[in-house]
Every structure is written in C-alpha cells, then in structure tokens.
TrEMBL record, chain A:
Protein's name in the database: Anti-sigma regulatory factor
Gene: rsbT
Organism from which the protein derives: Filimonas zeae
One Pfam family from the record: HATPase_c
UniProt domain Histidine kinase/HSP90-like ATPase: residue ranges: 37-137
Stored SMART domains: HATPase_c
Protein origin, superkingdom: Bacteria
TrEMBL record, chain B:
Name of the protein described by the UniProt record: Anti-sigma factor antagonist
Transmembrane segments: none
Entries under Gene3D superfamilies matching the protein: STAS domain
Gene: rsbS
Chain ranges of the STAS domain: 1-113
Domain of life: Bacteria
InterPro entries, A to Z: Bact_StressResp_Reg, STAS_dom, STAS_dom_sf
One Pfam family it belongs to: STAS
C-alpha cells in the first residue's frame, strides 16, 4: 500500500512555473534521500509532462507527494489538466509519435525514466498522469 | 525577459547557461546565437551546460538545432560540462544528441574547437601561396 507522507499542489500556468515545479520536486526528492541520478530522472520526467500539459492543455495542476510503500520511500507526482485529452493513448506512448512538432519522446521517454507510470485520459475532459520514482528504483 | 549572455572570444562565441532554462529562453538563445554567428563570423561556438541540473527533450532538441544551424553557417559547436546524471537521463530518455560535439570541460572544449577549425590567418597564407 502506498501511503502519502507529505503533499503539496503546484499550479503550472506558464513556462516559468515549470522551474518552480522542478525546485519543489528536487526538495521533496532530497528529503527522501534519493540519489542524484534518480532525482535528475524524476525532474526530467516532470519537465516533459509539464511541457505537455502547457502545450496541449494550456496548463494544469501538479500534486507533489512524498510517499512510502513498505520500506521504500519515493516521490509521487500527479499531473492533472482539463485539456482536450488524448484520443489514442497507445499511439501517444509510442516513440517518435507526436501530434505537435516535437520529437515524440515526451511520454514514452518519461515512462522509461520513472518507476511507475499511469495515464488516464478522457477526450474532452482532460488527462491525469501519475508517476512514482522510488528512492532506489 | 531573461537573456543568456553570449561572449565573443576571438573566433569563438562562448555561452555559459547559468540560469534554469525554460522553453522560451532556450528558443531565444537559439535565435540570438545563430544571429551572432552570422554577425561576428564566428568559427566556433562553445556552450557550457555545467550549471544545468537537467536537460529534457526540448532543450536537447534546441542544442541539436543550434549545432546544425551553426554548421550551415560554417561554425562548429561544442557542448561542455554535462553532468553525469544528465547524460544518463538523456540516453534513457532516448536523446542521443547526434551531430553535437562534446567535451568534459571548457578547457578541453576550447582545444577541440581549435582542432576543428582552420583559422582565417592560415587561409590568407594559403591564398598567398596560390598567387605566388
């Protein structure tokens, strides 16, 4: 069972907000004792997701939590937007697929960088993406 | 708006990114740098990213773009100072930064640039040889 220890909501409405978000995540990750490589992976993943949220949904909210499961500690991030949603998630998770002009690495790359990745999207309602990076994962 | 300074040093342009990058800042750096290369006839560009704790797919793409654009303008680009954790993350993300020269630090980057370019002074001596 995953128990949240500490939570904080960060609003992402403009590009500069992503820098604030990165710093908050770094603080949280440092508190769990996460190593630098895992921290970098987590923050990079968050940066990708925050960009997606800004580009495709005009912004949204991020819940930053320190969580624990058994003896493992980690950071859980929940990205929630009320944008157009993703019609074909399987397609969006493919390397090199993009409806924008990007490289199409955002979603599949993010999944590779984190321990757990969950995406839920309803077209017309919005998208919720939850990622967890365990301290040693 | 924030701006990243571009320093001119002989035939090279020097950029040290000290602030946290966000997308628009990275894009304006790309535009400024390419403008500067064309304006100053620079033969090499050195970008120091040692202060960057992360490089994501967008920033990686901008770095790749800068290198390709400068290449067309006859300038070589070297990226220096990447943190090990950033390198690990970039490869796992799927970004290989193909076509971008890299070096461990500014000093080595400068050496690499010097070997990559033929300085104009040598060019003129060549021309003299031909005219003689």
């Amino acid at each position: 069972m995953i128990i949240p220890l500490n939570k904080e909501a960060v609003e992402v409405k403009k590009e500069q907000d992503t820098i604030f978000l990165r710093n908050r995540i770094k603080e949280c990750a440092t508190k769990t004792g996460m190593g630098l490589v895992n921290q970098t992976k987590l923050i990079t993943a968050a940066s990708e997701l925050a960009r997606n949220m800004l580009r495709y949904a005009g912004g949204g909210n991020v819940l930053v939590e320190t969580v624990s499961k058994g003896r493992e500690n980690g950071v859980r991030l929940t990205f929630k937007d009320t944008g157009p949603g993703i019609p074909d998630i399987a397609m969006a998770m493919k390397d090199g697929y993009s409806t924008g002009k990007s490289l199409g690495l955002g979603l599949p790359g993010t999944k590779r960088l984190v321990s757990e990745f969950d995406i839920k999207s309803t077209p017309g309602t919005g998208t919720v993406i939850t990622i967890i990076k365990w301290k040693n994962g | 708006m924030d701006k990243i300074p571009i320093l001119r040093m002989g035939h090279f342009l020097l950029v040290t990114i000290q602030t946290d990058l966000y997308d628009r800042l990275a894009m304006s750096l790309e535009a400024d740098l390419v403008q500067m290369v064309s304006k100053t006839n620079a033969k090499g560009v050195l970008i120091d990213i040692s202060a960057q704790s992360i490089v994501d797919s967008f920033m990686g793409r901008i770095i790749g773009n800068i290198a390709s654009m400068c290449k067309i303008l006859d300038a070589e680009t070297v990226v220096v100072g990447m943190q090990p954790a950033v390198a690990i993350t970039l490869i796992e993300l799927g970004l290989e930064l193909k076509g971008v020269h890299t070096a461990l630090n500014v000093e080595k980057g400068m050496e690499l640039l010097q070997t990559k370019i033929i300085l104009p002074t040598e060019d003129t001596s060549d021309d003299d040889d031909y005219s003689a």
